[in-house]
Design brief:
globular, 10 helices
């Protein structure tokens, strides 16, 4: 069951609420979301890292949080302000991931610490043309799982609301999960595309059509 169905059942009676509370203790959506990427004992530290850095998970993994079922081909996308990126990357490195720079990222992760502000960082070479995203940093573990840190230019919500379509306009923080279009995403199971029509956005929408969210 998706998370909205679980909560709907919990409103039926006090007994149903007790059953749901027990079910969610054993099938926590946050733990389900991170299970492909991190061992279960890192759930608490990962929550704390998100909270301490005012970061959120979005993209396919945040959608998986509400569906309570991970997508096998998803990356773990963490959105954060530029000043938090180095701390978050170092957290992943300390927990089994390695930084894999893109072709234009001519620095090691320790050297990235020298960039103390967006003005210092040569982000104009990024493949991302969105004004809400400065750059993306890839980290890969021994199992080939990918965690991405997306450095935003303003707030994380600003970046999420600039996504290609409504199905991925969801965020998960260290304490809360928020869907900006819950009825469309999880009740009607439809997707509303943005005004963007580049090949990148079109391909992203096609991915979610195949996953069951028609435009």
């Amino acid at each position: 069951l998706a998370l909205h169905d679980v909560y709907k059942f919990s409103t039926c009676s006090q007994q149903a609420r007790a059953v749901v509370d027990d079910y969610l203790r054993r099938h926590n959506p946050f733990d389900i979301m991170i299970r492909p990427f991190l061992p279960s004992d890192l759930g608490g530290p990962f929550r704390a890292m998100l909270s301490n850095n005012h970061a959120v998970v979005s993209g396919s993994c945040a959608l998986a949080y509400f569906m309570m079922e991970p997508f096998p081909d998803a990356d773990l996308d963490v959105y954060a302000r530029f000043g938090s990126v180095h701390r978050i990357g170092s957290w992943f490195i300390n927990h089994g991931y390695s930084f894999v720079p893109r072709g234009y990222q001519l620095f090691s992760w320790p050297a990235f610490a020298a960039y103390t502000s967006t003005q210092d960082y040569p982000g104009e070479d990024s493949v991302y043309m969105s004004p809400s995203i400065l750059d993306v940093f890839d980290f890969i573990n021994a199992d080939g799982k990918v965690a991405q840190i997306i450095a935003v230019t303003h707030g994380v919500v600003d970046a999420v609301l600039a996504f290609h379509s409504t199905v991925v306009m969801n965020i998960v923080s260290g304490t809360h999960g928020i869907s900006f279009y819950p009825k469309a995403n999880f009740v009607r199971h439809v997707n509303i595309g943005s005004y963007m029509t580049t090949s990148r956005e079109i391909a992203a929408r096609q991915k979610y059509i195949k996953r069951g969210w028609p435009l």
